[in-house]
Each structure stands twice: as C-alpha cells, then as structure tokens.
Write a structure and sequence with these properties.
This protein has eleven helices and six strands. With about 280 residues, it is of the alpha/beta class. It folds into three domains: about 160 residues, D-Maltodextrin-Binding Protein, domain 2, CATH 3.40.190; about 40 residues, no CATH class; about 45 residues, no CATH class.
Amino acid sequence: MKKKLISVLLSAAMATTMLAGCGSTAADTGAAPAETKATEEKTEAADTEAETGTEEAAATGEGKVYYLNFKPEQADDWVDLAAEYTAETGVPVTVVTAASGTYESTLKSEMAKTEAPTLFQVNGPVGLASWKDYCYDLKDSEVYKNVLSDDYVLKDGDAVQGIAYVIETYGLIYNKALLNDYFALDDAEIKSIDELNNFEALKKVADGIQAHKDDLGVEGAFASAGFDSSSDWRFKTHLANLPLYYEYKADGITSSPAIKGTYLDNYKQIFDLYITD
C-alpha cells in the first residue's frame, strides 16, 4: 500500500474546522512555477512517489509532490510556497485547491487515481478514521521534531499520522457600535460589555436588540448560520463540537460510538437564539 503524507485540520478541544474557506470562492491554482490552471489539467499532471518521501526527494532533487489544498483562501499562498520549494530543491510541486465545501468528495476521487495526492488534509479524528491507511508515520520526520505539544497531533498507537496545520478558536464576535447603542437604551437590562459574561446576559442582550431592531437599524441581533449547505456547517460542526467536547471531557474519554447528550440543552439554547433573534 502506498504511504501518503498527511497534514491534519483538527476539530477537537476548542479547535474548529473552518471548512474550505467558510464560503470563499473556489480557487484552483497551479503547479510550480506558479501558474493558474484548470483543476482537471492539474489533477491529470499531478503525481506522487510517496514511498520515496518528501525529505529524500528534496535532498536529491528527484520526485514530485501533489498537494490537495483544503482552504481556497490560502490557494495563492500555497502556490507561492510551492514555487519557492521547487526553486530551492528542484522538486516540482502541483497545488490543487478543492472547491469550497467539496474537499472530502474531491479527496475520495483523487485517492482512487494512480497519481494520488502526496499531501492532504483530514478533518480531525473522524476524518483520520477514513484515511489512516493512507497516512505516513511522521514520528521521525523533521516537522514532528518541531512540534512542541501533542495536543493537536493525531496518533494511531505510537504512529503520528497527522499534525495540525490550522487551529481556529471559538468565540463571539460582536459589533461594538451596535452594543453601545443598545446599552444606551433606557430599558436595556445589560449596560456594559463587562456584564455580558454568561448565557443569561447574552439572551437578554440578544432579545433586547431584537425588540429594538427598528430603533437600532438592524435586521436582527445575530448574524447566524443559514440552513443551506454553504452555511449549515456553522451549527452542524462548529457549534455542535462544544457540547460533545465538554461531554467527552466530563467523562474522561476521547471518542464514543454514541452520545449521552449531557450538554445538548446548552446547544439548544444557543440555537434558539439563532432562530429567535
């Protein structure tokens, strides 16, 4: 079986998967030297000799790399980096960027080909379960030697099968001007951002903004996720990760075939705010 190197996009423990650019336009960018080509052309040209290994190829100037990129918003950066790598090592690099929201289906299609990706992403432990047979053990690699913590490393036993390259944290982004306008209302129950430190306070503010949306000049308190496929990952994965993470943490486990729903009421409360406000 061919061994494939893997980069990993984690989805666990306060890290999220900001899938394929969060609505960014699909970008297909080309091989080194940096040229823009159609995805089909690049895919046909892409090849890998994974058993040779990227480090050995770099040392000899032989081999080639096919990188299937997850995030359209980073496509140009990867093409630029590929060009620099080729200039330094002589190893040609093809960068193919999957269209937004299609990475998993694209990866399945590309892996079925003889010239499959050398470098690809998986979506945390769930994604690794599907692709671990294609993953090269990175425990002796130079990149793993520079990893300071195993918190965001995916392992199968002692094998290091994935290393995080993107970690995005949770939080609420708020409109400061809008909140200040709300705090100034006579009937505002919350009067400062310092008081906005728990769900009850958040609900009061969201409901209050919604009740005064015409006065405040907004359509609603939340800019929340839609139910279409370009947006529903916001609550199907990002938001849903939190109650699962804290349930696993409370139970001292890292995986389970089923959930108890310990914190699903918290999820429901936030989701209700999405719909109401």
